[in-house]
Amino acid sequence: AGPEQDWSGNYLAFSSPLEAGKYPACGSYGEVAPGEVGGARDYDAFYTMQFYQDLYCKETYNVSDFGVRPTSRFEFKLYRGAQHCYDMVDTTPRYNISSRDIGFDMLNFRFVCGNTDGVGNGIMIQKYDGPKCT
User: Fold this and answer.
1) 71 with 104: CB under 8 angstroms?
2) What rounded mean pLDDT belongs to the chain?
3) Which secondary structure element, helix H or strand E, spans residue 77, and what is its range?
4) Chain segment 31-53, per-residue pLDDT in tens
5) How far is CA 52 from CA 57, 64, 79, 114, 122, in A?
6) 101 contacts: CB under 8 Å, gap ≥ 6
7) Rounded to an integer, what distance in angstroms lies between the CA atom of residue 28 and that of residue 45?
8) CA atoms of 23 and 18, how far apart (whole Å)
9) pLDDT attached to residue 127
């Protein structure tokens, strides 16, 4: 690689190319390309949280007409370019029980440390009004 000019007007160059895996892949921290906003490319990673009926996580919980819990699965979507900012979307399979889906999605939030009421595990949720946790 040839010399490059830095922001102060000085030049710099590496003695040899950096090997793959020796520098961070920063593509997921950049903004989505123009015209691609509003789709899957808004997110860097997807995580599924599934509820189970047993302590060994073998039998998935299924929502029924007489069940106590109205949800059984959520998908967490990690925003690109915003550290620790998520959307949590209800992806519960409801089959013929669609009337129970009353909007359990939680969008545009971040996990933060704290415990204001002395109960819980010290992880709190902070919601935002602006795009990507701003």
Assistant:
1) yes
2) 78
3) strand 73-79
4) 666 666 667 778 888 999 999 98
5) 5, 14, 27, 27, 23
6) 70, 90, 92, 94
7) 9
8) 7
9) 93
